[in-house]
């Protein structure tokens, strides 16, 4: 049984013990790092894929050099993955990952990385009985295809890594952590995130096609954290998705609730093709960039007064699948 009120910890103890899963199971954390001088952007994604047979099942570490769109998927035996039960901390062979930092000693075909990074003062997403994380009451639904968790909306980084023999100092930089687990990624989705704006804060936004008992529906979750205040927009909060529009170069998203309206515009850029679960295997299916520009505006719905407006060119962006399934045309 999953730990609903600690979505950041490893949820797949049962399939991990069996080392196989009839319907397949995946789980992974996305740890994003941007150096203080903004010249280095790396994401590390440790996780597991547990398939119908022990031969299919394995642990993995995905490495993304976001500045150069360089990427590697390193496969490990499932036995190399050792998670703790009550906190987010896991070991993957000689590497460890957790809420307060990571330690790397990995050698792949493209990347050889050693070093330690500490995460200072992580901003946690609130968990309550009514809403155990960003999934809200959907976290209680046992048949969801994919679950999502926000682990740290923002934190400072201290430390350095040696990447292919070159020292990369991340001290003074900022990081972010989220995770996914379940059977499969959505058939279509848009995802974007950044915690590098002019003002200190964080933005996460996603819209996806969600399988359901009677078919599927268009779902969305968004979190805007600035000045110690969290604005949450989601299907379950009563907010309404006004626009989702994707072109070859841009992504537009607009959402509003009784009080606020959030408008987001992102410009797409070249990225790398990451591995993600599809039915009973991990395949190359997710294109991610860490050099997207993102601009947002939060305003009062009734008066139109701007409350917060900011932009960045250090955004992460994924656009995947049959996008017509999630497209919404803005009301005239």
Shape: globular
Radius of gyration: 19 Å
Spans of at least 5 consecutive residues whose pLDDT stays below 50 are none
**What count of structural domains?**
1
Helix content: under 10%
Which secondary-structure class do the elements indicate? Answer: mainly beta
Number of strands: 22
**DSSP strand (E) fraction?**
over 45%
Please report the number of helical segments.
Answer: 1
Average predicted local confidence, pLDDT: 94
Largest sheet: 12 strands, antiparallel
Q: Distance N terminus to C terminus?
A: 46 Å
Written description of the protein model:
The chain is mainly beta. It has one domain (13-325). The protein is 2% helix and 59% strand. It contains one helix and 22 strands. The chain has one helix at 13-18, and strands spanning 25-34, 41-50, 58-65, 70-76, 81-83, 89-92, 95-98, 101-107, 112-120, 146-163, 166-169, 174-182, 188-194, 201-212, 215-226, 229-234, 240-246, 250-256, 260-267, 272-278, 281-300, 306-321. Strands 1, 2, 3, 4, 5, 6, 7, 8, 9, 10, 11 and 12 form a twelve-stranded antiparallel beta sheet that branches. Strands 13, 14, 15, 16, 17, 18, 19, 20, 21 and 22 form a ten-stranded antiparallel beta sheet that branches. Strand 20 (272-278) and strand 21 (281-300) form a beta hairpin. The radius of gyration is 19 Å and the shape is globular. It starts with 12 loop residues before the first helix and ends in an 11-residue tail after the last strand.
